[in-house]
From TrEMBL:
Ranges of biased composition (kind: Basic residues): 40-49
Highest rank taxon of the organism: Bacteria
Region span, Disordered: 30-49
Cleavable signal peptide: none
UniProt organism field: Nocardiopsis suaedae
All copies of domain HTH cro/C1-type, residue ranges: 49-96
Gene3D superfamilies per UniProt: 3.30.450.180, lambda repressor-like DNA-binding domains
Name of the protein described by the UniProt record: Helix-turn-helix transcriptional regulator
Amino acid sequence: MTTGTLDGTRTGTVDATKELAAFLRTRRERLDPTDAGLPGRRRSRRTPGLRREEVAELAGISVDYVVRLEQARGLRPSADVVEALARALRLAPDERAYLYGLARQRPRTAEGPATAAEPSLDRLVADLSPLPAMLMNRRYDILARNREMAGLLPDLDALPPSRRNAMWLCLVHPGMREFYVDRERVVRAGVAHLRAAWAAHPEDAALSGLIAECIAHDDEFARLWDGGDVKADGRGLKEMRHPDAGVIAVHFETLRPVHDPEQLLVVHRPADDESRAALERLSAR
């Protein structure tokens, strides 16, 4: 059974070098010189888009390097070169991400994480009721939660926005120290996520500060951080000792919005009838 046609050959795998070459050619040929700030050309010219020389000039690389990339001659451009080509070719965000993927590089960004939920995601979190749901950024800052989630996490509304962080609540907030029945597993998953986020964004001072605070306040976090674990749980079972409703068991699922995969939408479902009844009582309050 065939799975697709790439570069005229039916194959079950993608040749990233050839796809990179084809992608650069098509993006170069579609770009009008005036869009790139270059003088227009006579209509008699048959070659569409930009010349390779013009792409090289805009990207600050050699013409020979552009030629070899477009001829699929086995080059693996650095992240700096990929970013320069993305700017020169006026790539849209999705195209830029695709180019980075073909080059097996990680996009570099100085942008901080979202600090507030977009209205559409805020409405989605609310519409997930009666299932407890919340939206977090890469630091585990809670950007949005519905009524059921606010009831499930005690004291959340009483905290200032700067302290509405799921990791800080679990490790530092006095009322949450014994909240999770299997606390080590919860902390281990949080450590793995924060370590991956920290490695991808070493410039994020707030994230580094959160990690330093957690290491200083919690020996378990410090021990797990030193272990170097990067395998996070995106789904599973959690048991919580709620001060008013007793032990509540929930299945959780973590989803990522396509437009910002660093955000985390976490949805909880009751694991048994007793937990469902407890969540209904909390929601009614």
